[in-house]
Design goal:
Blueprint: H1 4-10, E1 60-64, H2 66-78, E2 84-88, H3 94-104, E3 111-114, H4 120-124, H5 140-145, E4 154-155, E5 158-159, E6 162-163, E7 169-174, H6 175-181, H7 189-202, E8 209-210, H8 215-224, E9 230-233, E10 236-238, H9 244-259, E11 262-263, H10 270-277, E12 283-287, H11 290-295, E13 308-311, E14 331-334, H12 341-353, H13 355-358, H14 368-379, H15 389-396, H16 410-424, H17 432-445, E15 449-450
Parallel strand pairs: 1-2, 1-3, 8-11, 10-15
Antiparallel strand pairs: 3-14, 4-5, 6-14, 7-12, 7-13, 9-10
């Protein structure tokens, strides 16, 4: 999915001040995008010895989501000599179309923006063989300035994509309500659980988390380091839902779901929006984009100005690092079939590093210097009770490295197994054995050795 739910969610988000900011990050956003008529970019951009051949006169076919479309158009306007054809695509049909292009030997986009970061494993898999290594196309100093942001783009020592943005998790909280009730923002997950017990007794109906959607995978399991998709080598993966880093998430959340301090509905369900509008959301551990895309929009929480703030993520007992999860963060991929690879690489480098573009972007830029420029927007935003950027910046380098991209659908498995268990009242712990079985079967079917 990312993302099936994330893309669907962002299709319904409108900015508080009437600016529609659509987030198309996955394969389930049919309401956002247009079906793409295949346009051949030609095939064979590399020689057998791996050297790159390029024709700067070749038109670059760009496939993007609607949100990034404006950035590509901005690049085109600033670089009129670069020939580009920019199209939005149907996320539901993306994999099908790519497989068709592989069969017919034509049609691949030269540049692909994919809102699902984890899908880079599919673009590099020999069965798809789409992504071009970028190591010789993107200067070393540029790659270095991304820090660890491009780690999901790296396989066997080669860089296959550039991250557009980060979706590191932070602790969002309503400062006004927390101060009124005399609560402190938890620094550990034990403190978080204790706060939930207090809230359930002292202010029933208020919540400090959500566990009824795919987002609980990113917000809790990923941050905990649960080995749901821990890649240990080429086509090797470690999956162990009995690992304490998995079971402690269930031990944390199940009692809180039962006492009502963590809701069993999803972040973007109508019931959740109603809780937000009623001012019942005290806290939400979640993506760095929740402030702008959940708390702020009129049609979602519609939170008044000056109430929402962000804090660093809690840490687990015995651990010194307060790890984050990752809830999105799109990638730019250059096709190995492109006849104009250097041109394509220049475009995605501009899209990820240009301050002119990234400083106005809706989400936290993956490129370090651009993130600094982007921070200026948040600092002047009166919606926030305090500047949330320091917490985002702290967590940007703390995305738990246990999780890695795989070419099978982990998000779909989680959504089909864990989410229904939560919503039915059975809880998380009751679903972990079934999730283990589903993931192992998916991995083996896709050619992985499960360790």
């Amino acid at each position: 999915m990312i993302f099936a739910q994330e893309q669907m969610m962002r299709s319904h988000v409108s900015h508080r001040r009437s600016t529609t900011l659509r987030r198309a990050l996955t394969c389930a956003a049919a309401s956002l995008v247009l079906l793409v008529a295949g346009c051949s970019s030609g095939s064979g951009g590399t020689k057998s010895d791996g050297t790159i051949t390029d024709d700067s006169n070749e038109t670059l076919l760009v496939w993007t989501d609607p949100t990034r479309q404006a950035g590509f158009e901005q690049f085109q306007k600033a670089h009129p000599g670069v020939k580009m054809k920019i199209e939005t695509y149907d996320g539901n049909a993306l994999l099908t179309k790519m497989k068709l292009f592989n069969r017919t030997g034509k049609g691949w986009p030269d540049i692909l923006f994919d809102g699902r970061t984890t899908r880079i494993a599919q673009w590099t898999d020999p069965s798809m063989d789409y992504a071009q290594p970028l190591d010789t196309l993107v200067p070393q100093d540029v790659r270095t300035a991304f820090g660890s942001s491009n780690d999901p783009c790296t396989e066997s020592g080669k860089l296959y994509c550039l991250r557009n943005d980060l979706a590191q998790t932070v602790t969002w909280y309503n400062k006004t309500l927390m101060d009124r009730f005399g609560y402190q923002v938890p620094k550990t997950w034990d403190e978080y659980k204790a706060l939930g017990e207090r809230v359930a007794k002292e202010h029933p109906g208020y919540i400090i988390g959500s566990a009824g959607s795919l987002f609980s995978y990113y917000d809790y399991f990923w941050a905990s380091g649960c080995p749901i998709q821990q890649v240990t080598g080429p086509k090797k993966v470690h999956i162990d839902m009995k690992d304490p880093r998995c079971t402690r998430v269930a031990d944390l959340l199940d009692p809180m779901i039962k006492n009502g301090s963590v809701t069993g509905v999803g972040l973007f369900d109508p019931e959740m929006a109603e809780l937000g509008k009623q001012g019942k959301v005290l806290m939400l551990p979640g993506a760095s984009w929740l402030g702008d895309f959940l708390f702020k929009p009129d049609n979602l929480f519609n939170t008044p100005d000056g109430q929402i703030a962000a804090a660093p993520y809690p840490s687990w007992q015995g651990e010194s690092t307060n790890w984050s999860g990752s809830v999105g963060g799109g990638i730019y991929v250059v096709s190995k079939h492109s006849k104009n690879m250097k041109g394509a690489a220049e475009v995605i480098q501009w899209m990820t590093t240009s301050n002119d573009y990234q400083k106005t972007a809706p989400t936290y830029p993956a490129y370090g210097p651009a993130a600094k420029a982007w921070a200026e927007r948040l600092a002047g935003d009166t919606f926030y009770a305090a500047d949330p950027f320091p917490a985002m910046e702290q967590q940007a380098s703390k995305v738990n490295p246990v999780e890695s991209p795989t070419s099978y659908d982990v998000e779909g498995a989680f959504t089909e197994v864990v989410v229904p268990s939560v919503r039915s009242g059975a809880g998380i712990a009751a679903s972990l054995d079934a999730l283990q079985t589903r993931l192992v079967n998916l991995a083996k079917a896709d050619g992985y050795v499960v360790e």
